[in-house]
């Protein structure tokens, strides 16, 4: 199968290319930076330099590649610019979908998020509604609605990505906050997924039916549960408490649908994943 991977140099994209190649697929990977073309070739993908905000260029690129499927792993979070990331989800996804439809592509798989469900006591499933009051909603709703226009559009609702190259890596943004003592123990839910498992889900999704699928590990946890384990792995000071009467926020997320489709996280719990982190050597 010929795959066009949009966002091929990102955290998931650069893990996904070798998986696709090993599975026998031909891969073309997009980047907006010409200097990253060599990285893509090294991973096994043909580089396609294109700015996803340029609708005409995206249309031309998809038409030239003539892929059987498009995998959308585009994000813009390197500077923690959430507004830019939302705009990418809205405009970039629309351009990809329109280009794919014009080229006769039937399948699109796209990266979404799993922490947007309305509050509830039970673990959220894909049948639960998303919370329109949360800031990422506009971008996520636009992305998921656009992908649903495809003959077969699969939306991967990833949990919080961790592993090398993510914000939770020892040199990442979350690690910096933990070392600075700016995160507190609280009853806020997080459902994690290792970036390697996120990539394996994208490969598996080539055979999945249309619709949303939660891609999270087996062990949703509150900050009060995971933060001490994560902080210990970093060698960081013990985090403070958010207060005895802090209200629970967020929601645990179920991966039952993904499991029923045959996907299984190789890192079943963040407890194992955090314990395997290699913290940078201290210099003080």
From TrEMBL:
Residues 3-211 form the NAD-dependent epimerase/dehydratase domain. GO terms for molecular function: aldehyde dehydrogenase (NAD+) activity. GO terms for cellular component: cytoplasm. SUPFAM superfamilies: NAD(P)-binding Rossmann-fold domains (SSF51735). This is NAD(P)-dependent oxidoreductase. It comes from Actinomadura darangshiensis.
């Amino acid at each position: 199968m010929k795959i066009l991977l949009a966002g091929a140099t990102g955290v998931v994209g650069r893990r996904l290319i070798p998986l696709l190649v090993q599975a026998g697929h031909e891969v073309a990977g997009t980047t907006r930076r010409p200097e990253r073309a060599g990285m893509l070739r090294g991973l096994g993908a043909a580089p396609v330099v294109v700015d996803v905000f340029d609708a005409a260029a995206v249309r031309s690129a998809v038409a030239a590649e003539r892929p059987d499927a498009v995998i959308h792993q585009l994000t813009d979070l390197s500077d923690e610019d959430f507004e830019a990331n939302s705009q990418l989800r809205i405009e970039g996804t629309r351009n990809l979908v329109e280009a794919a439809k014009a080229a006769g592509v039937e399948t699109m798989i796209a990266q979404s998020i799993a922490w947007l469900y309305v509050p509830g006591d039970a673990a959220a499933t894909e049948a639960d509604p998303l919370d329109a009051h949360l800031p990422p909603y506009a971008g996520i709703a636009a992305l998921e609605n656009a992908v649903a226009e495809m003959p077969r559009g699969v939306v991967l609702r990833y949990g919080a990505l961790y592993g090398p190259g993510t914000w939770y890596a020892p040199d990442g943004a979350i690690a910096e906050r933990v070392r600075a003592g700016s995160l507190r123990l609280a009853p806020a839910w997080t459902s994690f997924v290792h970036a390697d498992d996120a990539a394996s889900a994208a490969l598996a999704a080539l055979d999945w039916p249309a619709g949303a699928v939660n891609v999270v590990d087996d062990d949703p946890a509150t900050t009060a549960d995971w933060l001490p384990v994560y902080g210990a792995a970093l060698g960081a000071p013990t985090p403070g408490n958010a207060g005895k009467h802090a209200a629970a926020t967020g929601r645990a997320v179920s991966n039952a649908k993904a499991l029923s489709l045959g996907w299984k996280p190789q890192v079943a719990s963040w407890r194992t994943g955090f314990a395997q982190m290699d913290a940078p050597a201290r210099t003080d």
